[in-house]
């Protein structure tokens, strides 16, 4: 996976103008309580999509004083973001070219800081965010990854000083770090509340639920000069982006097991079948898979149903990571299936070149693959920079 860096703004995000960069600002930002000069002359923005990308983008645009409507086919709990994401973890099945690594490290770092900030300010019960020890397991000795600067205290395991860092049998190494783990439907509710909360001017963010998917972007531009596209896999049809390919993932939701707290991930043994155990605030997620399918083919639709074979495979694989999983049976779990918006040519976080007239602005924010939660707030901050930069000199 590679990243198409923003074409107007430097791809580096220093975080200094991110609303959550300074601890005390997170509360203000959430209350939308900052006096915003732009609100007198607020420009309207329509954000397409109400997954994590659309909600975080909508919130940050509102905080900058834009009047924002989210238009979407589906909302929580029926988005990929609800089904799937949970761990802050830069996971790129196809690897990342060196030239994109700094950019992704920065937006990942902004996102992690924001999750941590929200957890501290609002608590785990309200946000669904906890902080957990994560071990990315390795079959052989491995150098620390390129994204180490974005992670909290990333190191090789020290089982002698911390028994929680003991590796399961068969693994020779690992990357250990502390990271936000998120119960997504709860967090999505928290974000929707944040987006629709009244600002100081009494105005609220609006979420418009459409009875059918948007098929022509010109229809949206009839209502606003600025449109941000956060439709995830939906961009395949809407923008004929054939580089998007769905990475099917099945996961199992289970009751938590007493004493199991750390997150274990093995993406090495079989890249099509990443295996993980993720204890969350009130439940536990067991996974998984990342297999290429085209969701919009008949075969793809078939694949969107969970399969008992996959459930069995997940239970077997995760019990090898922690034998306590042996006490979980297929009757105890609720399977979910989601489709990662994998994009062969990388995350699309830039101005759209789709035949839009010069007095209009289309910005894309999609194609985050298996890291859409991990990159969400940083990507949204990039969108705001682009919109600010391009519209700064527009006539009112
Ligand atoms: C099994 C699995 C596990 C994962 N685990 C993690 C993880 O641990 N950490 C992590 O960071 N990421 C993880 N991911 C990836 C993450 O879930 C995605 O990258 C992320 O959810 C993408 O968010 P999004 O908002 O871009 O898209 P979505 O959540 O898919 O939202 C798209 C929105 O656009 C709307 N839409 C689409 N098309 C149209 C249209 N034409 N008209 C109107 N509305 C439209 C949809 O209704 C929806 O509201 C996982 C994914 C899967 C499948």
**End-to-end distance:** 39 Å
Tell me the CATH superfamily.
Answer: NAD(P)-binding Rossmann-like Domain
Number of helices: 11
Small molecules held by this entry = flavin-adenine dinucleotide
Report on the biggest sheet. 9 strands, mixed
Order of helices and strands: HEHEHHHEEEHEHEHEEEEEHHEEEH
What does this structure look like?
This protein is of the alpha/beta class and 396 residues long. The protein has a single domain, classed as NAD(P)-binding Rossmann-like Domain (Rossmann fold, 3-Layer(aba) Sandwich). The protein is built from eleven helices and 15 strands. The strands form two sheets. Strands 3, 4, 5, 8, 9, 10, 11, 12 and 13 form a nine-stranded mixed beta sheet that branches. A six-stranded mixed beta sheet has the order 6-2-1-7-15-14, covered by helices on one side. Helix 2 crosses helix 11 and helix 4 crosses helix 11. The longest helix has 25 residues. It is globular and about 65 Å long. The structure holds flavin-adenine dinucleotide. Flavin-adenine dinucleotide binds next to helix 2, helix 3, strand 8 and strand 13.
Helix and strand arrangement:
Elements: H1 23-31, E1 44-48, H2 52-63, E2 67-72, H3 80-83, H4 98-122, H5 124-127, E3 129-138, E4 152-155, E5 173-182, H6 184-196, E6 206-209, H7 217-221, E7 226-229, H8 235-238, E8 244-254, E9 263-266, E10 275-279, E11 284-287, E12 291-293, H9 298-303, H10 308-321, E13 334-343, E14 348-351, E15 361-366, H11 376-391
Parallel strand pairs: 1-2, 1-7, 2-6, 3-9, 7-15
Antiparallel strand pairs: 3-5, 4-5, 8-11, 8-12, 8-13, 9-10, 10-11, 14-15
Helix pairs in contact: 2-6, 2-11, 4-11
The protein binds flavin-adenine dinucleotide (FAD).
Flavin-adenine dinucleotide binds at residues 48-54, 72-74, 79-81, 84-87, 89, 210, 213-214, 230-234, 238, 249, 251, 288, 338-341, 366, 368-374.
């Amino acid at each position: 996976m590679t990243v198409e860096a923003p074409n107007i703004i430097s791809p580096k995000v220093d975080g200094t103008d991110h609303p959550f960069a300074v601890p005390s600002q997170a509360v203000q930002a959430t209350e939308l309580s900052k006096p915003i000069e732009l609100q007198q002359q607020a420009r309207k923005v329509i954000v397409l999509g109400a997954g994590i990308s659309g909600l975080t983008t909508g919130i940050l645009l509102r905080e900058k004083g834009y009047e924002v409507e989210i238009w979407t086919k589906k909302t929580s709990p029926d988005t990929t973001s609800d089904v799937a994401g949970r761990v802050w973890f830069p996971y790129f099945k196809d690897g990342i070219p060196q030239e994109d690594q700094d950019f992704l490290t920065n937006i990942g770092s902004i996102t992690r800081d924001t999750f941590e900030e929200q957890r501290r300010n609002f608590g785990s019960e309200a946000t669904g965010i906890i902080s957990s020890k994560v071990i990315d397991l390795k079959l052989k000795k491995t150098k620390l990854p390129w994204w180490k600067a974005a992670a909290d205290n990333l190191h090789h395991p020290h089982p002698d000083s911390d028994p929680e860092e003991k590796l399961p049998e068969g693994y020779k190494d690992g990357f250990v770090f502390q990271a936000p783990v998120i119960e997504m439907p709860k967090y999505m509710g928290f974000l929707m509340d944040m987006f629709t909360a009244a600002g100081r001017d009494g105005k609220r963010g609006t979420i418009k639920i459409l009875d059918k998917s948007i098929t022509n972007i010109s229809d949206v531009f009839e209502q606003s000069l600025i449109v941000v596209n956060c439709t995830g896999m939906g961009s395949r049809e809407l923008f004929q982006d054939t580089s998007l390919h769905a990475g099917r993932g099945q996961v199992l939701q289970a009751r938590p097991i007493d004493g199991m707290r750390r997150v274990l991930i093995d993406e090495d043994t079989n890249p099509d079948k990443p295996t993980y155990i993720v204890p969350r605030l009130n439940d536990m997620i067991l996974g998984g898979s990342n297999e290429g399918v085209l969701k919009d083919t008949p075969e793809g639709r078939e694949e969107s149903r969970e399969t008992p074979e996959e459930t069995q495979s997940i239970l077997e694989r995760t019990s090898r990571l922690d034998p306590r999983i042996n006490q979980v049976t297929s009757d105890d779990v609720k399977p979910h299936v989601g489709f990662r918006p994998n994009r062969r040519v990388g995350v699309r976080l830039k101005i759209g070149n789709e035949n839009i007239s010069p007095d209009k602005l289309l910005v894309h924010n999609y194609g985050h693959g298996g890291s859409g939660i991990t990159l969400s707030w940083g990507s949204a901050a990039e969108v705001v920079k682009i919109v600010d930069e391009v519209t700064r000199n527009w006539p009112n």
